[in-house]
Design brief:
Blueprint (H helix, E strand, L loop, with lengths): L1 E6 L13 H16 L6 E6 L2 H12 L9 H23 L5 E3 L3 E3 L12 E7 L4 H8 L2 E5 L2 E6 L6 E2 L2 H9 L3 E3 L6 E5 L5 E3 L6 H11 L4 E6 L4 E3 L7 E3 L1 E3 H5 L9 H14 L2 E6 L3 H5 L5 E4 L2
Parallel strand pairs: 1-2, 1-12, 2-9, 3-9, 4-10, 12-16, 15-17
Antiparallel strand pairs: 4-8, 5-7, 6-7, 10-11, 13-14, 16-17
């Protein structure tokens, strides 16, 4: 089978862990050992998140005032390269018989996407409330107010095309394990002349994973996180674990925007477009998920 595996942020940093390199290395090594359990006889493509890492790079850049902070698309690329290296190395150690390669991935978005008029994705660290005017005037940022202070808000446009897709296909067809699409990819647009340029945005990593899995004609999309599946009425007394659900059943349920909703939308898109299946579940249970013994299986209507 051809399997696209989307690693959630818990595979890189668990809740309340500092974004230190050694902690990341240990978590990624554990994720690689889990992935190795389903590698035999399968083609694997790995995507991953990068939220805390981009935030850390942004804070580090701001602490060197002699140079203007690098724009967000370059920070996206830096974090994708950093994490891609760690994941690639961990998979090489866990799968010594397989060739593994990590690619930077540019993802084309529409410069007229309505998301550019409605920045709502928080990135970077927290700032005191009194800093709002300075941040808006010096950086031209959109600012959101949160319990712990102010944060920068950036757009989250729809992914339209993965520009390195031909190279990814070639590598997968040659039997290589490919790490790509990190953090949803580096967001780029085409200008009037057809040239590419990066933009200050963050693409949802799960939507990019669904786009990639569809373009690769994957048999399965695995969306791995830190819970063992999708729950209806999560956090309430009558919560119900969903072992299997169709696209229409999931679309008729309500989920919090910042929790399971992006994964459900990504799974539904992949299943709708391909007629194949997607799973949402816990990374540590990856073998059981593939065997239909864990997680939530999303099937066509």
């Amino acid at each position: 089978m051809r399997i696209v595996i989307a690693l959630g942020g818990n595979a890189l940093l668990q809740k309340n862990q500092p974004p230190e390199a050694e902690i990341q290395r240990q978590n990624i090594a554990e994720a690689a050992r889990a992935i190795a359990k389903i590698a035999e006889g399968n083609e694997l493509v790995i995507t991953h998140g990068n939220g805390p890492q981009v935030g850390l790079l942004a804070l580090q850049a701001e602490n060197y005032p002699a140079v203007r902070p690098y724009p967000l698309d370059i920070l996206d690329a830096e974090s994708e390269g950093m994490l891609g290296y760690q994941i690639e190395q961990a998979l090489m150690n866990a799968l010594p018989e397989r060739h593994v390669v990590a690619l930077l991935s540019q993802v084309l978005v529409d410069q007229n996407d309505l998301a550019f008029n409605q920045p709502d994705k928080p990135v970077g660290g927290f700032y005191p409330t009194a800093e709002r005017q300075r941040l808006e005037e010096e950086h031209y940022w959109s600012i959101g107010e949160f319990e712990n202070g102010l944060r920068r808000l950036v757009p989250s446009p729809e992914p339209e095309k993965i520009l390195e897709l031909p190279a990814i296909k070639l590598l997968v067809n040659k039997g290589m394990v490919v790490v790509c699409g990190g953090g949803g990819g580096i967001p780029v647009v085409r200008d009037a002349s057809g040239s590419l340029r990066g933009v200050a945005a963050v693409i949802d990593k799960d939507l990019t994973s669904a786009l990639l899995a569809t373009a690769l004609a994957a048999d399965v999309l695995l969306l791995l996180t830190n819970v063992d599946g999708v729950y209806q009425d999560w956090g309430q007394a009558n919560t119900l674990a969903l072992e299997q659900a169709s696209v229409s059943e999931l679309r008729n349920l309500d989920f919090e925007p910042g929790t399971m909703r992006p994964k459900i939308e990504a799974a539904c898109r992949f299943v709708e477009r391909t007629g194949n299946v997607a799973y949402i579940g816990h990374l540590s249970q990856i073998s059981a998920i593939i065997a239909d013994q864990s997680g939530t299986k999303i099937v066509p209507d």
